[in-house]
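Example 9 (inverse folding). The structure is encoded as follows.
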């Protein structure tokens, strides 16, 4: 276990177990093929390098989230909140968002789903908040007709 103090958050992380799970199961879209997840995979490279560097010591990869939340238009792009499960414990739940890079903030929680197949227990979650451009040829609004991302992700991660 490795202890991290990030702002007012204090974490105890099994970095190797976390990294091993994502190495085995993670991919750029969290197992979901919807337009929002494909756009995340295509656009996330525009973020400053600090975003990936924040996650890396925790055993997490910006391109391999456990789940991707998308919350509509913001600042000329789309508002995304990807999340990752982390093996270990949230020792102190801080308050507010941690600044990670210009336009990117982070936080930790213990109650964010979906819960992932074979993920080591105990675990908690890390989320990032960011605005990404829409880079797919297909329009975002059409993709909104088929919004069952969470169910798809949950299904793919929980079935054996
Ligand atoms: Zn999706």
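The amino acid assigned to each position is listed next.
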């Amino acid at each position: 276990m490795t202890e991290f103090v990030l702002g007012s958050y204090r974490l105890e992380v099994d970095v190797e177990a976390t990294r091993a799970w994502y190495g085995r199961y993670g991919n750029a879209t969290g197992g979901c093929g919807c337009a929002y997840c494909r756009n995340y995979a295509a656009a996330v490279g525009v973020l400053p390098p600090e975003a990936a560097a924040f996650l890396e010591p925790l055993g997490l990869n910006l391109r391999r989230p456990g789940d991707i939340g998308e919350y509509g238009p913001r600042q000329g792009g789309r508002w995304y909140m990807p999340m990752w499960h982390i093996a270990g414990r949230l020792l102190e739940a801080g308050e507010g968002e941690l600044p990670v890079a210009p336009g990117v903030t982070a936080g930790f929680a213990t109650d964010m789903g979906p819960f992932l197949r074979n993920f080591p227990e105990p675990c908690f979650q890390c989320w990032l908040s960011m605005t990404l451009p829409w880079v797919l040829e297909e329009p975002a609004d059409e993709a909104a007709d088929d919004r069952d991302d969470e169910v798809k992700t949950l299904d793919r991660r929980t079935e054996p």
